[in-house]
Amino acid sequence: MTQMNFTDKTKVAIIANGKYQSKRVAAKLFAVLRDDDAFYLTKKNPDIVITIGGDGMLLSAFHMYDKYLDSVRFVGVHTGHLGFYTDYRDFEVDELLNILRSDKGEKIAYPILKVTTTLEDGRQFTSKALNEATIKRIEKTMVADVVINKVQFERFRGDGISVSTPTGSTAYNKSLGGAILHPTIEALQLTEISSLNNRVFRTIGSSIIIPKKDKIEIIPKRQGTYFLSVDNKTYTHRNVAKIEYEIDKKKINFVATPSHTSFWARVKDAFIGEFDS
Ligand code: NAP
């Protein structure tokens, strides 16, 4: 029997959340892949990251590997309901193993968001978001100018602003009244969080879909402490001068699996369920 070269093997990382069911699935996958000559289990520079848990677990894994987006593909196993980033349920692990064994490297790519925060002292922070990034002012009403593609669009007053990716449109964005966007549409969505609208203060009120080429800038007009979220990570900064949002040059890649394409089935499963016809 000829042994496979280390370099011919597919490097796989398995990342699971703390749920009992997730740990069980992880243990099964680990045992099977460890004994399969075609795979090498490692958390360092993997070709494929298998997440076990829910969409939240996939978000965490995305942030663990967001420096390696050119080389890594993700595939998710959900240990609850069917998720948006997860193609397999916990009882479909054998199906996933078959897909991995016949994998030829095909991928499905979705846009992600690049967020650049500039503080008044000149410091700058850049991060990538898979779902969305939000800005809120902690002490009082947030007052900020919204600039879209260099057009001074409106002066916002309210709790804050969310900018979401297409795949993030079903998450916080949806709770804020934003639209659901098919993930193949390369656009960002700006959604208000409790805007103040009366005879004096005016914002557009509806969410706005912004194409790939346009940049969004939020320029806070009051000093104070700002609360920024990027997916499941949160930061507080004093005196934010500007936040810029644009579609990142890189995308997130998923293993192309037969069940990956049915976005509308996932939306129905998550929000509508079965109904009498
Ligand atoms: P969490 O508060 O523990 O869970 C948030 C929920 O959102 C989970 O049920 C998660 O699904 C689901 N979710 C995550 N991404 C989704 C997507 N793209 N489409 C539909 N549902 C999605 O926080 P977390 O698990 O760390 O996730 C952070 C995300 O929570 C943020 O990116 C934000 O979108 C969302 N969030 C929502 C609200 C709101 O709706 N009011 C408020 C704050 C944050 P699983 O159960 O499969 O993990």
From TrEMBL:
Q: Which residues, if any, are the signal sequence?
A: none
Which residues span the membrane?
none
Do you know which InterPro entries this protein is assigned to?
ATP-NAD_kinase_N, ATP-NAD_kinase_PpnK-typ_C, NAD/diacylglycerol_kinase_sf, NADK
List required co-factors.
a divalent metal cation
PANTHER family xref list: NAD KINASE
State the family it belongs to. Answer: Belongs to the NAD kinase family.
Q: What is this protein called?
A: NAD kinase
